[in-house]
Amino acid sequence: MGDHRSMPVPEGLEGDRLDAALARMFGLSRTRAAELIAEGNVHLDGGAGAKSDRVHAGAWLDVTLPPPPTAPVARPEPVPGMRVLHEDADIVVVDKPTGVVAHPTVGWTGPTVLEGLLASGVQLSTSGAAERQGIVHRLDANTTGVMVLAKSELAYSALKRAFKERMVVKRYHTLVQGHPDPLRGTVDAPIDRHPSGDGRFAVVTGGRPAVTHYDTLEAFRAASLLEVRLETGRTHQIRVHMAALRHPCVGDHLYGADPTLSERLGISRQWLHAVGLGFEHPTEGRHVEFESDYPEDLNRVIEDLRED
Predict the structure, then answer these.
(1) Degrees, nearest 5: CA angle 144-88-273
(2) Where, residue-wise, is CATH 3.30.2350.10 in the chain?
(3) In the predicted model, is pLDDT for residue 43 greater than 90?
(4) Residues of the chain with CATH 3.10.290.10
């Protein structure tokens, strides 16, 4: 349905061609005005106009303008490779692939866990901002593994509280450069945005408290496989704390990893995987645990190192 307009030709357009007059009156291009005339959408004094007709001031113009184009609404799409590990009335637990963020953010055009689930028909809790519905914690875009989302309002508030009060068991495996000394330990160092403002985080005096426990599982010639347990959940926490120990996650070029080693191992992202998540189920009251195997790219690196 178009928008119908009816009015006299203004005096200032006396003697102009009909397409030029139309373009001036309605802010159209000459081409678009000529198309409207050709489509029979313009009548001058009751008769169908031709684009080269000269108009006279006061002549009656009837125009049907097309509706303005509407921007296509981006429809969420399921995320290829994202597996649902568990779903019930209150929670959904996914195994997040690489290259996927938790929820839509400014400047991110790739897939998100949130939209992927909504596209698959999963109903999520609507607490908090619309773009963060159901989100109680996050994994970086290129960190893979277990992530839980809230489906009910009850689960949303219970899980938010559990994460805040450090009641959630968060286990990660990461491959770091070199060999940490001691082989097991704790990094307790506050984290905040890096003063450079380039999107990195750093150990900063007066930052937010951050505690990371690590334990060496396996040592290779140039790298070590660690199990990491997080007490807090700061952005990039493991990556920042490992870099602060001078043992950055392999492949993590944002935090100083050696590009030559990454290339040799054929890895194009940080070797960091959320292997397990344990918490009290928000409505059933029992402790639940979910685990995820290494994805193919990370697994291949470990197998190559073992053969080395």
Answers:
(1) 10
(2) 74-165, 166-308
(3) yes
(4) 3-65
Which of these ranges, 87-91, 104-108, 160-164, 239-243, has the smallest mean pLDDT?
104-108
Element (H, E) at 301: helix 296-307
**Among all residues, which ones are annotated catalytic?**
140
Tokens (6 digits) for 129: 């901002």
CATH topology of domain 74-165: Pseudouridine synthase (3.30.2350)
How far, rounded to the nearest angstrom, does the alpha carbon of residue 259 sit from its chain's CA centroid? 26
Give the residues across from 5 on adjacent strands: 63
pLDDT at 73 over 80: no
CA atoms within 13 A on the CB side of 49: 29
pTM for this prediction: 0.75
- Exposed/middle/buried for 40, CB within 10 Å: 0-12, 13-18, 19+? exposed
| DSSP secondary structure, 178-194, as one string | S--SSSEEEEE--EEE-
pLDDT in tens, 14-42: 999 999 999 988 888 889 899 999 999 99
Going by CATH, does the domain composed of 166-308 fall within 3.30.2350.10?
yes
Length of the chain: 308
Q: Which CATH number fits domain 3-65: 3.50.50.60, 3.90.550.10, 3.10.290.10, 3.40.50.2300?
A: 3.10.290.10
Q: pLDDT tens digits for 225-254?
A: 999 999 999 999 999 999 999 999 999 999
Q: Long-range CB contacts (< 8 A, 24+ apart) of 193-198?
A: none
CB atoms within 10 A of CB 272: 27
Mark 232-262 as b/e (b = at least 16 C-beta within 10 Å): bebbbbbbbbbbbbebbbbbbebbebbeeeb
